[in-house]
Amino acid sequence: MANNDTIVALATATGNGAIAVIRLSGAEAITIANQVFKGKDLTKQPSHTIHFGTIRDGDDILDEVLVSLFVAPHSYTGEQVVEISTHNSRYIIERIIQLLIRHGARAAQPGEFTLRAFLNGRMDLSQAEAVADLIASTSAASHQVAMQQMRGGFSNILKQLREQLIQFASLIELELDFSEEDVEFANRGQLSALVVEINSIIQKLIGSFEQGNVLKNGVPVVIAGRPNVGKSTLLNTLLNEERAIVSDIAGTTRDTIEDEINIDGVMFRFIDTAGIRDTRDVIEAKGVARTREKMRQARLIIYLADPQQDDRAEIESQVAEVAQLNVPFVVVVNKVDLLKQDQVDTLLAIEPLFISAKNKVGVEELKHELLRKVNLHNLDMDDVLVTNIRHVEALRKTEDALQRVLQGIDNAVTSDFLAMDIRQALHHLGEITGQVSTDDLLDNIFSKFCIGK
Ligand code: GDP
Ligand code: ZN
């Protein structure tokens, strides 16, 4: 995979912007660009300089461009890199890329620039993955987590853990050479204390995944409640657009609809659901089952009630059912515009939020309550959060291996067994940052990138 041929791709999105950037990377990047560029001799210019000129295909002037030069190893990929800023025309871009290919470049594979950055040691694997997350981030929170990971916060912690383990591994392996003499270079008490300490850090990282995942992918919030209480209307109001279908006929929302909104920098994924009720309608029955499933998986439930349909006792019993799911929930009484004061007074007993989804009353208070319930604001953004399932799995395997080390010490097993489990732990830590990687793993990670990244 570690080719050093020169690759080319459009690095900016196709669309309506004014400018597009075509990126070349590889040993011949600058010489290839120089062959089609009319202006200064690019091969004689220093790194990190920008040059104006034209791109020519024979006598044909394809465009006036700016060319940025990055001389190896001071570039994103660690190779010679040229970025050509052109006018954003599909035709111009296509012609220039074809021209560069005719002069010896090759069309880049998805993620190949970042793959090269990884292979050339410009970043570790978790940082490369963070580049993809960063590009995909849609909220302040997800941006911050990705940025933290890309800048190496997570990598640094892992690096320290690895170094500590490697030190002990080497002491233990030294014992193997002296096995006849029954020496212990690595103090067992110290080793055990170190492993406990490392494991507590690893457990903390594993524990951060729930929060990290929520920040990266959005907080899943289910809007539940009986048919016609106003779930779809509330979702529309929250999204500020006519996304879900609103109607007076009970059970119109047959399937679940999801959409995202950004509240104070935190992404919430709202899930509208079919009403909770028993039904003979087959399609709708499926919807109800899915609703219960979604409610169980949600991070937060908005339970919407409508006193026009149900009295206080009924609402209380519905709320009791929701409470059994053990998912944080907010009880919201809708259609406050239709309520009489004595109804409001009776309902105060269940401490709901009163809103009118239709008239947009109480919606800001509801948003604040959602933020309060997910409790992400106490989050210290300097904390490293694990957001990637691959990383969590590797951390869990590391933890298992370290538990075996601890048991081994307790049972006074021989050094060779301890060494084996420590190596296992190191192996799994190395999988995260890429000290240990296979072509399949790299393929799997980088093929999810877009071309040009
Ligand atoms: P769902 O079945 O729970 O999704 O309920 P819908 O959102 O489809 O709403 C059912 C009916 O209640 C519609 O006619 C809405 O216009 C109406 N509705 C929703 N919110 C309010 C509200 O705050 N006040 C009043 N008066 N009607 C509402
Ligand atoms: Zn609905």
From TrEMBL:
Belongs to the TRAFAC class TrmE-Era-EngA-EngB-Septin-like GTPase superfamily. TrmE GTPase family. Exhibits a very high intrinsic GTPase hydrolysis rate. Involved in the addition of a carboxymethylaminomethyl (cmnm) group at the wobble position (U34) of certain tRNAs, forming tRNA-cmnm(5)s(2)U34. Binds 1 potassium ion per subunit. One of its GO terms (molecular function) is GTPase activity. Its EC number is 3.6.-.-. (6S)-5-formyl-5,6,7,8-tetrahydrofolate binds at residues 23, 83, 122, 453. Its main location: cytoplasm. K(+) binds at residues 228, 247, 249, 252. GTP binds at residues 228-233, 247-253, 272-275. GO terms for cellular component: cytosol. InterPro entries: G_TrmE, GTP-bd, GTP-bd_TrmE_N, GTPase_MnmE, MnmE_dom2, MnmE_helical, P-loop_NTPase, Small_GTP-bd. It is found in: Cytoplasm. It holds the Pfam family MMR_HSR1. The lineage of its organism: Bacteria, Pseudomonadati, Bacteroidota, Sphingobacteriia, Sphingobacteriales. SMART domains: RAS. The gene is mnmE. GO terms for biological process: tRNA methylation; tRNA wobble uridine modification. Mg(2+) binds at residues 232, 253. Keywords: Cytoplasm, GTP-binding, Hydrolase, Magnesium, Metal-binding, Nucleotide-binding, Potassium, tRNA processing. Its cofactor is K(+). Homodimer. Heterotetramer of two MnmE and two MnmG subunits. Residues 218-375 form the TrmE-type G domain. This is tRNA modification GTPase MnmE. It is an enzyme of class 3 (hydrolase).
